[in-house]
Structures are given as C-alpha cells and as structure tokens.
Amino acid sequence: QAAAGGGRAAHRACGVHNVCRLLTRRAHGFYARDAGVAHRKNLELLRKIMCQESTKFKNVWTTHSASPIAYERGRIYMDNYQCCISSIAQQPRILYQKSKCAKSEKIEDALLLECPLGEMLPSPSDYKASLIVLTVQNWLLRLSADSGEVLEKVYLAGSCCKFFRYLSWDTPQEVMIVKSAQNKLPAAARQAGIQQTVLFYLAVFQVLPLSFIGMLEINKKIFGNSVTDVAVSNGILIVMYSMGLVRLYNFKAILEQFMEQPFDLGQEFNWNGQVGVVGKYPFGLPCNIKITDTPPLLFEASSLENAFQIGGYPWHYIITPNKKKHKGVFHICSLKDNALAKNGIQDMKCCSLEPDWIYFHPDMSGRIIHVGPNLIKVLKLKEVKNHADQMEIAEDFTIVANRENCVNNTVTVTASGRVVKKRFTSLDDDPEQETFKIVDYEDELDLLSTVAVTQIGADGRAHLDFHCNEHGILLKSIPLKESWDVTYSHEVYFDKDLVLHIEQKPNRRFSCYVYQMVCDTAKDDD
Hints:
Mean pLDDT: 87
Organism: Oreocharis arfaki (tit berrypecker)
Distance between the termini: 52 Å
Protein name: DCA17 factor
Transmembrane segments: 198-218, 230-249
Keywords: Membrane, Transmembrane, Transmembrane helix
Structural class: mainly beta
Pfam families: DCAF17
Low-confidence stretches: 1-14
Number of helices: 6
Strand order of the largest sheet: 1-36-35-34
C-alpha cells in the first residue's frame, strides 16, 4: 500500500508541474487524502439536499421574551446570557440556565471564542468554544459555551476608566479590543471650566490563551477636538470626526512605538505609585501605552456620516460625498491614488423611506453588493481594456424583486366636466410591493440569502431565498410562517440547515422563531 501510495504521489507530481495549479487543484478537493476534503464534500451534499424541491424548512420552535435574544453558532442566548439553548438538536434544548443576575452583573456585550486549529493550548477547556462577556461592572469573563461555567475573569477598570462597554475583534479569533464608552464630564464639572481630554480607552488582548497586550487612551490633544468615535480592525486604528472625516493609522506600529512597559495578567506591579496585580480587583489594568505624538497618517477620507469601507482587489474604498444631497450616492475609488473607478459612481436613484446600502462581498471575492428596495446588484472590479492601471465597475449579476408595476392612474372630473388624469408613482419601498430587507452570505454553503417582504394592511409576509453566489440563480425559496411587520426590527440567521428569525416589537418584546430542514418526499403543509 505504501508503494502504491508513493507511486500515486509520484504520478500526481509528474502530472502537475505548476505550484499554483497544484495548490488550486488541492483546494478544490482533487486529492482524497488532503485534510478538509471530506468536510467540503459533506457541505456540497448538504447544499444539494437543501435545494431539492422536496426539502422543506419547518418551524420547530418559537419563544417570546421580555429581554433581548442573541444567536451565536447554534446557540440561542436569552435573559442577558443567563439562559443558553442549543438550536442544533431536533427540538431546541436548554444547555444551561443560571439564576437571574443582579443589575450590577448585567452583561453589556459578548463575543464567541472558538478554538484555533493546529495550536497547543495550556488548558483542556481552551479546546472547546467559550463566550467572552463584558459586565456592567467592568469584569471581562470567559464562560464555557456549553455550561456557562466561569473559566477566567479579568478586572478591567483601575483608576483610569469606569465604563468599558464594547467588545470587537481586531483580528477575528486572535486579537480582541475592549472599548470604553465616551468619557463625558458631569455638567457641574463642565460649568466649572474643567476640560476632559481623554475620550476613549482601548484594552487589547490576545485570546487563547487570554493575555493582556496593553491599554491606551484616545486623547483630544493627540487626535483633535472633534473625534466622535474610534474602532480597530485588521491592524488599523480608525478615528472618526464630527465633520465626516475618517483617518486611518497603523495600530500595530502604535502599540510597538508607544508601549512603556509590557505586563502579564496576574503579574504584580508598581505603576505610577500604585501597587497591585494585573487584572485583579481593585487595580485592574495599567494604561501602559501612552501616545505622546500624532502617529503617521496612513489614509484619510471625508464621507457622509463617516461611512467608509475598504475591500476589493486591487484595494478600493467606498464613500458617500460629504453632503446631505448626495445621500444614496456611492463613490468607488482606488486606495492607491484616490482615482474614481470607471462607472465608479453608483446611484440607484431610489425614492424610498429607507436608503439603499452597499458593501464589499464577505466571500473575499472582491465583489461589491449594492442593495436597493427592489434590486440587488452584485458588482465586480475589472481592468479597463487597454488601460491595465485603471479599474472599472461592471455588473456581475442582479436579483430583482417579484413585484407588479406600481404606477397608478386616477381619474377626476372637474366642475366644468373636464376629465383630468393624475399619474403618480408609489415609493420604491412601498410595503405593499415586495421589498428586500436583508441580504446575507452563508460561507460554508456558498449561498447568497435574501429576505423579501410584502405587507398588505397589518399582515406582512416574508420569504427567505437562497441564490447561487456565483451567478445569482434562485435555488430555493422558504416562506416564513409568522407575520412580518416592517415597522419592527428583525434579524434572520441562515446557518447550514437552520433558519432563525429574531423579532423586536415595541415595549422591548422579543420573539424567536426556529426553522429546521426537513427532508420528506410526501407533501406536508407544515
């Protein structure tokens, strides 16, 4: 067998001499012994089964709550993350239920943490999924995703900050950012002439194992008086200003340049006259990154409402010109030289209450998705013919809502007997016409999902459609049984063989509807 295997390997090597071709063929699963091939084949089978006409999605579970409902990777969280329900089983079942927590223990934000592949971790619990949560009292907790047991706890706020509120990824599943609320002085302090120069605090952690990288402050003296918000993503510090300006800085370079002293969690320290243990109450974390000078600027752009996105290949960015009259107009420009791409101004000219939206496709193809009330355009970047250094925006495919012509004619007769015809056009997002509300991408099945809604009177009907991500062809349509009110807030998750709809009604009333795939050749009204 070894000889035969060696012979096959030699034959394979002889057949493909180009490294790029070899890697491409391996990624497509040409070689049965490569890791991940079985998983890819299973997902291909699941996609084919799901898109069969005989396959249905059945509403298997519904619940209602007075507190927000969240969903993460097959787990439904309720009662401020005190109750966790598995949605993977045939009937959703409770994984754990904790007693009601005090207001001082309320969870402000959460991130799901999954084990990285191919790494040795210090604790057996690190190999299982866990939930990182941030409490109102500035505790950062790592909980077991299956039992809710506290695995690790870190106290964040020392003397510098009292209001950490937000969790986000810098690098997904690797580097985490904990951000404070914006610091604001009490009215009495402002009247007394006291000025607040520190706007935000950012604490940076490496995850699995959980380790402290550093804490820094965003200060008016360094970044300016008109800063409204900050974010960190993929090694870039993004600073937003009240006049629509967005500035980008190299976050990794900032950490390296302005780090005063590194600290480890659990380490005893003497810092600015304080003696304590890093990450323990009451000292928390030291602010050990002091930005003393404005960092080198990587890029800046001005955009309406600070809307700014980077993506595509070669790198491009999307902005809206910084004037209210341009709302709904998107410019796609080269990051290299700010040149507007050919056909780079995208304007659907929608007459609607809700604006259209645009973003880079999450499938890493470099394409762009532009969603309007009745039209979804998937765009692509390509070289202009005979101009290799210039890019143009071309249409890859479109998805059109199934609606009738919404132009109506009314006839009136004046007092003199003259017939007057009035012609008017309803809004593009008229609820009585099918309108796109949600567009998402299922990466494991490579499907583009859309939710379209039609509301007549008080009764709204929605359906979830699956489209081929490559060509936009409609593969499957799933009607949602519950009524859909367009004035409520809605979230729809499509996760392999599961569809989950979370609805927020007025007065903080929440509902969750779970659908699961059912394969039955017989006709079933359910």
